[in-house]
Amino acid sequence: MKRRAALVVALITAMVGASAGAAGAAPKSSYHFLHPGGQPRLTEKVPVNVVFLGYEPGQVGKTAYLSGLPKKYEPIVRYRAVYGQTEKLGITYTYDYKVSYGTRSYEDRFFKQLGKLAKPAPLTQYQTAYNDQEKNVKDITSNNTIDAPSVEKWLAFNPPAGVDTRRNTIFFINWYGRSDFKFHVYTKTGEADPDTGYDFGKERDSRKIIAWGGTTADDEETGLGSTRRVWFHDLSAGPESWTTNYDVDNPDLDGDGVVDYRMPPTWEYTAGGFRAPSALAGDLGLITRYVAINLLFTSSPLYPAELPTAEPPKSINIDSNTYEGWPGVDASQQYIKPKLVVDELSELRWRNRLDFDNQDLPYDAKAQECYLGVLSDTSCYPDSGYPAFANLYLYNWANLDRTKDDDGRVDYELPVFNYAVGAGVGVPALGFADDNYVDGTQTGVFCFISPEVVQSGYGLSTTQIHEVGHHLGMSHPHDGYDSETGVDYEPGGEFLFANAGDESNSMMSYIDVNWDFSQFDRDNSDRFLTSAYNEAANRLAADVLGSGKESKVRGQLRAADVLLGLATTAFARHDYRAAYAFAEGAYNQVVAAAKRAGVDAAGPAKAMAAEADAARRSGEVHDPHEFIDTLAPDSPRSQP
Question: How far apart are CA 232 and CA 52, in angstroms?
Fold first, then answer.
């Protein structure tokens, strides 16, 4: 690492020296990668390997499959779009698709391995429900469970010749039709909720799944040992609860008059089945585009990754504040594991210093009024013009000073508010990461616990990790943005099948069988932060140039330009960690230039905050459009 750093310093010195030239003002065009006042210009040709195992070209034609896939993608800040703003990150992805079909010998090896991993098990209640359908073409006569992480690891390190699983790779699996076929589901067990000990993967049939992937090299439970990027999807497994593909009688599941589109088991692609055989290639294309690409491989952030601070923070305090309204229970002591929260979030924001503290707050009359008002849709600030759902944001922001116990010690106190209430009171959700109801800027994180929530298997720790993940920019792997159509979607109606994205090793999933951020999460976070530091450097550089002192600080600006060049190159080469580090280094060089030129490094952020404050005072307050992490009875995660 030291040798690499020394090489980079030497390269910067040489390039800055060679390009400095004579004294005097230099034209802006002399910077190749630093674009003062502009957006980043980051591009990546993203490799996407697609391997069909058990599907023949006659079943899934390559041309038909590829016809629905995107050519490029430009991520946006999704919460800004709720308020009518299209905030691009300055990133453009194009895709390099490599499609292959497994050879007979490879498929024999793979399905032999599946057979070895298969363990006889009772039918799940969803396989039984499928058998009870009037229109099903086949009955499930037996069942086997197969450990999903074991399959992911085998595929990751035993790919077909020419397939590099260090790059994004989808394996589409179809065991059905072979003589060695076994009815099966995949499982992920052994990672219970850290606060309650409830193992969703073991205890619930709704967590018997048909897809899996995204495990990191260093995952504490099932780590791969070295970095791979694999996701597999198997329509010959199940049928399952999570994508509701066990129901082949009711095209419209919720009665809203819109077909809830999902992919049935493989054998239902037949004459007289749930779907025509000719639809299979297109359906696998939909899963590739709207799940694997948009939600896993190259997603859009929910919130700005740079956070609402004067300068990008180096240190972040998870500032937990708990309203103890559950009689006889100290929820902050019993249902929060601070070390786990910090450890998991540090894996995502690995260049930040994170710590955690908690204080209990009085659940007094006003706090209770505002909380109960959320449940009853009654505003506790009726003259504010804000909806009742904003009660908790308004109340806690009016009293925010009492939470600021780390001012001056850390760069950013990330506000988390936990509400612990007694039996029968009710909770509005497991949690949500709120915004300011004006322009989609993140504000506070809200988490909820009660006897009923604990009985459902949840404490506060995993909710905090998940919701802080949103605050830091991460989206769910079941909802997202399609760049070419401009559509933001969630699992329902024509996109019900997007629930398949939850079947991945991501803390941002609802599947509740793991508490880690996936490799895909880490890749996307590093990309978002590369863009954020690049843009911060560009904004501040514009102020430095405007000071009239460029000649005094040209060395730092040249160094920033070189570092952004290195970031751009690393980004294009899929080295996202290096790209993030180089972009942060570039920003630090511009900060040094600003200080030398007498320019306030926090100036651009202050200007943006002033604009947002003006909008808050004069603009329309929006109704909430929350990505609420619900425990509604009809949600997938509430199913048994």
Answer: 10
Nearest to 148 by CA among 65, 55, 49, 219: 219
Terminal C-alpha separation, the chain: 49
Q: For tokens 């760069």, name the residue.
A: 411
Residue 295 three-state SS: helix
Token code pair at residue 19:
């390009």
Residue that is written with structure tokens 């006659």 in the block = 58
568-573: Cβ within 8 A, 24+ apart:
568/33, 568/41, 568/42, 568/43, 571/42, 571/43, 571/44, 571/527, 571/530, 572/42, 572/43, 572/44, 572/45
Residue type, 513: V
Mean pLDDT, each 10-residue run in order, the chain (640 residues): 46 46 45 95 98 97 97 97 94 98 98 98 98 98 98 98 98 98 98 98 98 97 97 98 97 96 98 97 98 98 93 95 97 98 97 97 96 97 95 96 87 97 97 95 97 98 98 97 97 97 98 97 98 96 93 95 98 98 98 95 70 51 64 88
Written as six digits, the tokens of 245 are 């593909």
Strand order from edge to edge, sheet including 119-120 = 119-120, 144-147, 185-187
CB 601 within 8 A of CB 540: yes
pTM of the model: 0.94
In the beta sheet, which residues pair with residue 209?
186
Q: How many helices (H) does the chain have, and how many strands (E)?
A: 18, 16
563 CB-near residues (< 8 Å, 6+ apart): 12, 582, 583, 585, 586, 589
